[in-house]
Design goal:
Residues 352-359 form the Cytosol aminopeptidase domain. With 510 residues, the chain is an alpha/beta fold. 33% of the residues lie in helices and 21% in strands. The structure holds ligand BES, manganese (II) ion and zinc ion (ZN).
């Protein structure tokens, strides 16, 4: 990952491949953002005009490259768009900085070192720029070596920016230091979640995912317990077993326990971890299965958040549950019409084997409930209906408690993740009535995302505050990169979960 430092160096003397500055959209053309004063001065105060001549407007996502002024050690200036200028006397918004830093870091792929001369008003800005750089520089190159030696790896793509110095950062300031350290822990784990999501399903299956979680647990002092097929059978986890029944790679339930000796609260996080979703016997048609390696994004987010919380030493107990299975058709697969006895004891008639996420989550939610945590949050690429409702960049938030749902939407907003509250209308429950079992795994087609939420709610223990994040839209970016979001696995919900853990730790949630 890109190495980050806070630097008090002056821009002209700095040895780097490039200096990144901010340019915003002013009322009368582009405006040079604070932080770039030394660069502007070297251009005799004409930098805004120079940028305008080059066609820059300050729009978000815009990159303008220009030669550095005489006397500068760095050869290149990269001006990155920040969008609208802030209201009078206000600071640049954290998300605008995060996106701009991400765009610049990606534009500088292949470079060794860049200096970031962006507006760093307070430690919040330091954190945002740091996150933007680390997340924007991300590239998934593991499979791009054409089978050659490691030294030839990356030949198809440029290596991520190796080093970034944040100019105007205060290396001795406690808050600045904490901000950069928090950003590094969160971004490193988030990028690891992206790696897991991008790893093809022939290499990432429930067993190998569990092994990765076990190794990470050892490294970060997190207790990890893995229930394999034998243990799941013994325990009666009919949902996870039913979904995994068709695959040559057996299912797993992974429990990650991070504890803090002074914790007052216990937060449980549950992630959908379908390492590949073919649909099962209700097979998905071509065009709907090419990206279904992303169906473990919820589990990846939970895993990343628990490790990040441990690295940050948050004063809260967190249990992460990864419900891992591969959904495949075969002679041993669950059929539409089969009835599963779930871990909770309820029976489920499987009408569509492609509605598998709710089945594995049901068992994990019930397992999580047995510990009576203060709150449970599950994260899942659960329904295409949620993508239709909210699009590709916004996740839906459902909950059995309105205040908790609002708190989650607010926490997401704080860290720059787009989310939206969704209801759980009771009348949709009867669509899942089954003539044979306690409930069916499908209901009305209309409002399919909410129907799935209502199904999950049936497996949450009595009296436990619970929320469900459907990240089917934002989990995987099939389009081009934007802001600090790469193509492929995005790491959706990781930052929201870490924020929730922080808020729980200080008693502001749950
Ligand atoms: N993993 C899919 C949902 C999904 C769709 C994730 C698009 C990411 C992008 C899920 O398991 C699924 O297949 N859901 C079905 C449920 C239906 C059969 C009730 C769906 O949404 O079509
Ligand atoms: Mn499915
Ligand atoms: Zn799925």
């Amino acid at each position: 990952m890109t190495a980050l430092t806070l630097s008090t160096a002056a821009a002209p003397g700095l040895r780097a491949d490039a200096i990144v500055i901010g340019v915003a959209k002013g009322a009368k053309g582009p405006v040079v953002a604070p932080g770039a004063e030394a660069v502007d001065k070297a251009y005799d105060g004409r930098l805004a005009g120079v940028l305008e001549t080059l066609g820059a407007s300050g729009a978000e996502g815009e990159v303008t490259k220009l030669p550095a002024p005489a006397g500068f050690k760095a050869p290149l200036v990269v001006a990155v768009g920040l969008g609208a200028t802030p209201e009078k006397d206000a600071e640049y918004d954290g998300e605008a900085l995060r996106k701009a830093a991400g765009v610049a870091a990606r534009a500088l792929a292949g470079s060794k070192k860049a200096a970031f001369a962006l507006p760093l008003g307070d430690s919040g800005a330091v954190g945002a720029v740091s996150e933007g750089v680390l997340l924007g520089a991300y590239a998934f190159e593991v499979y791009k070596d054409n089978g050659k030696d490691a030294k030839d790896a990356k030949k198809n793509g440029k290596a991520p920016l190796a080093e970034a110095a944040l100019l105007g950062g205060k290396p001795r300031d406690k808050e600045h230091k904490a901000a950069i350290e928090r950003a590094a822990a969160v971004a490193e784990e988030l990028n690891r979640a992206r790696d897991l999501i991008n790893t093809p399903p022939n290499d990432l299956n429930p067993e190998s995912f569990a092994a990765i979680a076990t190794a990470a647990g050892k490294e970060h002092g997190i207790k990890v317990q893995v229930l394999d097929e034998k243990a799941l059978t013994k325990g009666g986890y009919g949902g996870i077993l039913g979904v995994g029944a068709g695959s040559a790679a057996g299912p797993r339930l992974v429990k990650l326990s991070y504890t803090h000796s002074k914790a007052d609260k216990h937060l449980a996080l549950v992630g959908k971890g379908i390492t590949y979703d073919s649909g099962g016997i209700s097979l998905k048609p071509a065009g709907h299965n090419e990206t279904m390696k992303c169906d473990m994004s919820g589990a990846a987010a939970v895993f990343a958040a628990v490790v990040a919380a441990a690295r940050l030493g948050l004063r809260v107990n967190i249990t992460g549950w990864l419900a891992l299975a591969e959904n495949m058709p075969s002679g041993s697969a669950t059929r539409p019409g089969d009835v599963l006895r779930m871990y909770s004891g309820k029976t489920v008639e499987v009408l569509n084997t492609d509605a598998e996420g709710r089945l594995v989550l049901a068992d994990a939610l019930w397992a999580a409930s047995q510990e009576k945590p203060d709150a449970i949050v599950d994260v899942a690429t659960l329904t295409g209906a949620m993508v239709l409702a909210l699009g590709n960049r916004t996740f839906g938030v459902m909950a059995n408690d309105d205040a908790f749902r609002s708190a989650i939407v607010e926490a997401a907003e704080e860290v720059g993740e787009a989310s939206w509250p969704m209801p759980l209308p009771e009348h949709l429950r009867k669509g899942m009535d089954s003539p044979t079992a306690d409930i069916a795994n499908m209901g009305e087609r209309m409002g399919g995302g909410l129907v799935a939420g209502l199904f999950l709610q049936e497996f949450v223990g009595e009296g436990i505050t619970w929320a469900h994040l459907d990240i089917a839209g934002p989990a995987f970016n099939e389009g081009g990169p934007f802001g600090y979001t790469p193509k492929g696995g995005t790491g959706s919900a990781v930052r929201t979960l870490v924020r929730l853990a922080e808020l729980t730790a200080v008693g502001d949630l749950g």
